[in-house]
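Q: Sequence in, structure out?
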Amino acid sequence: MPHHSVDKLKEWISPSIPLGLMFGKKQQALEILEQIKQQLKSIDIMQEQLNQAEQELPELKKQLEQAQQKLEQLQKDLSESELRQTLIADLLSANNLNPSVREYFSLLKGDFLEFANQEDSLKDEAAAFLELQAIGDELKVIGAYPEFYKKRSIAIAGGFSAGKSEFISSLFEDPNIRLPIGIEPTTAIPTYALNGQENGVIGCSQNGGVIDLLKIDPDFQQKLSHNFIRSFGFNLKTIMPFVFMTTPMKFEHLCFIDTPGYNPSDVADGHTAEDVKTAQEFVQNSEALLWLIGLDSNGTISKSDLDFLDHAGQYSQKPLYVVLNKADLRPYDQLEEIMAEIADTLDDYDIEIAGISAYSSITKEEYLYHKQSLHAFLASLDQPSEKQTLLMRRLFAVDEKYQRAILRTIKENKQINATLSGFKLDLLENGFDDMSSDLYEKLGKMNSIFTIKQKEEHLKQLETVTMKIVAAIEQVFGQPSKVKRKNWTQDEIELDEKFVRLTQKEQMPDELMDEQPSNNQPSDEKETYSTELSARFWGYWGNRLVGNSEIELTVGALLSENKEVFTSTEWEDVYNNLEWEDVYNNLGWGNVFPHVLKNDSCDDDLNVLCEAGIIRCIDDGSKKNKFGFINMLSGGSNPIKTYRFVLPDKEIFNKFLQRHNNINLSDEQLEAIKALIESQHYFDFEDWTEHYKGEHAALALGRLVKAGAVRKEKDDYYSFI
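A: Exactly. Output:
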């Protein structure tokens, strides 16, 4: 009832009510009316409040919905937080159960690092260590999932949003199993997708431990989104470097690696050094490369892709197949033009390919191909892998680099030491014989710097640690390796020219050869001793050590007559009857031997030659002739003896070894002895250092003298006994 109606009712009732009832029913009625009025006011207020509430109701509903969403997000965040905590805890607690993988990394961080810290010959040592770490990462995968080593790894690479994950998912038989897409390359976790009887997702920890991600969450593969990975606050790859996904696939022996892409628009040059490094790592760890190009862009292969493939190709000769993905977005005639253009461009860059396919990951259809179809290419690779052989070859490639670097340093140090030793001898020959001087002390220090003993020990240490690593790898695979380690030798190492020249004897200019006679032989020796016999004799003995001009001339005269065997009578005739001055002039020795003092005794000279080993008595004259008489020198009582010049022969080295089989000779000593004894009988220290490749050349030669295998002659020459 309206307020004004109540007021009119009160005015009408008031005059007609008797005075007696003024304070009776009338008053009561008025009070009731007042109450009604107040209640009506309350109703009006409530109506206003109701109207206001009806106006606020949509906003309240919105707030309620927001609150419900916030609650759901909090519950989701709580669930993801619990998931993150569980994942981190499981990853950190997961241990690699393969003891051989642990042994590999123990050797890498222990024995190998100890060797590498001591050895400095290899310049690119960091790259070698990274390669060994990469081999270890492969072993982690094999140790974590043993079936993996039977699979051939195919790296799926390409620019960001090229459709790599979608492409791999198109190979799955179960359409409900898909790889996460749209993850930024900097946070993406490489996924190994391979054939399996059941669906499974296995996470691998940094130390090679494994956890079943589906036990943590049945939909875990769907939660590997960009936001989920970023929610950790750090790069999840640091504790979970890769993931295995198993699902039924058509290709039984293939494993597809979903690699992180790169975004060329982020950098001025199209890709970063980290991009190139990532591509190289995956190409190196795979047996083939599928490069995807998304046709939703301009439909050409970019300069960044070409540079990427060029970088990757420098490190591998593995087959490359190009997939033009998202082909369903292009008309067929455009696909033909695009494929032809890309094929020509790759050919211009000398990038060899196994084929090109225009393929749609959505429709799972190949529209056309170049060279061979995608299915044919994958089918050709679908066979058990030889991962053990591949890893062994990579290991031995690192080992070879170290071996060759150390051997090269050894050869260089030998060249330097030989030069220093020759310098010392030059100083001694020129009268600088104070061995206590600072000069010799400094030369000694230089010799100690260029030592080879430590390098030889490093070679042995390298072999030891390499074979330990080989044993660990063989234990991972449970079988011996088909590839064996090669021991490289110094002969297989070529030195830089600057080191080769250190010990090369300088050649005299041709225009000075006639003016400067040799120290070892008169300048006209080749003309004088033109016979083969003379050449063999003087090439082996030289004439520098006989030390007696009469003897030299007599020997030369006999050789000029090709007398390899001669008698004491013939020797005496030549010795006594030669006109020495004419001989000197005829032989061109007049300026070499201006004063000759004849020896009174031919026998003494012959004895000198015998003792020197230059001639050998083959008949002492004690045998009787056909008349029953002993041959005697004319006019004397001495028997006629027969001698033969000692000339080099192929068996001289073997005879030397038989004669001195009681001496323990090093390999370096044997090598030097063989080279010298087959070419010359007498040698000096320079000759020795030229052929001796070990340390302490003087000490090694001194031991031969002490053992009686080498004789110290006059004028600092030596001869073999």
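The radius of gyration is 49 Å.
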